[in-house]
Specification:
10 helices, ten-stranded mixed β-sheet, globular, about 35% helix
Length: about 260
């Protein structure tokens, strides 16, 4: 990395960290926030209130203005729609535990929109202090893929395989791709649930919690992300890290997505 690139990266890190200091830390320790057990009307409402809180909106104004394309007082962020559940590939499924679903619920997401059209996902989790925003991610991936999955396989479970930044929808014995990364992994026509399990076992079976890989602090696989205390237990692989910038401040992580896989229809 050149000195100029290092300075540019440091500047982005500093700017993003400055945006995050206004968000409350979900908890004092680095212990991961437990995944929600279920999605209820009450939990959706609580997540929505956390996303629309005045302090959160003030932080969003600075977040959307961080690159100088719009002034903070002109952002006028708003929350659109209700919070939605977001699921990731389940470690229990990869471990082959009997009856384990392919994905597990990780957090609820609320969509934030700025006056200039910028969008971001507010990840919310139930902490010891109640429901709080614990992460801000640029873009609208969570919401677009939820809609695509519902249209492609009604009633299915939309989930992300974060190691390769791939989105799928699964129902019954089928797993269908929702973006180009998923198509590369399972083909445009999708695959069977058994074949998908075989693939993820080959890819991540030796990287589960407690494995030598995880204990060695390897990036990717299922090594816990220390910088994201409220985030999923599945840490991004190198391919995802290359396309995203994560910054931790007071226990809160902001993800700045720099690539947007094209959604398939």
């Amino acid at each position: 990395m050149t000195a100029m690139t290092q300075r540019a990266a440091a500047a982005v890190l500093a700017a993003t960290a400055a945006v995050l200091v206004a968000l409350p830390a979900p908890q004092a320790s680095a212990t991961p926030v437990p995944q929600p057990r279920s999605v209820t009307a009450e939990s959706r409402a609580a997540a929505g209130r956390a996303a629309a809180a005045p302090d959160t909106l003030a932080t969003l104004s600075r977040f959307f203005a961080r690159e100088g394309k719009i002034a903070p007082d002109a952002v006028r962020p708003r929350i659109e729609g209700e919070a939605i559940p977001v699921s990731y590939l389940s470690p229990d499924f990869v471990a082959g535990r009997a009856g384990a679903p392919v994905a597990r619920l990780e957090f609820l997401a609320s969509e934030a929109v700025a006056s200039d059209g910028q969008r971001a996902a507010l990840w919310t989790a139930r902490t010891e202090a109640g429901w709080q925003v614990v992460n801000i991610a640029t873009g609208d991936d969570e919401f677009r893929y939820a809609q695509l999955g519902a249209a492609k396989l009604p009633g299915g479970t939309v989930f992300r395989e974060p190691q390769i930044d791939a989105w799928y929808v699964a129902a019954g014995s089928r797993v269908l791709p929702l973006d180009e990364d998923a198509e590369r992994a399972v083909g445009a026509g999708g695959t069977s649930l058994d074949a998908y399990r075989a693939r993820v076992v080959r890819a991540y079976g030796d990287k589960l919690p407690g494995s030598a890989y995880a204990k060695g602090g390897g990036a990717g696989g299922y090594a816990a992300a220390a910088a994201a205390p409220a985030g999923p237990s599945v840490a991004p692989a190198a391919g995802v890290a290359a396309g995203a910038l994560a910054v931790s401040a007071l226990g809160v992580t902001a993800v700045r997505r720099s690539r947007r896989p094209r959604a398939t229809t």
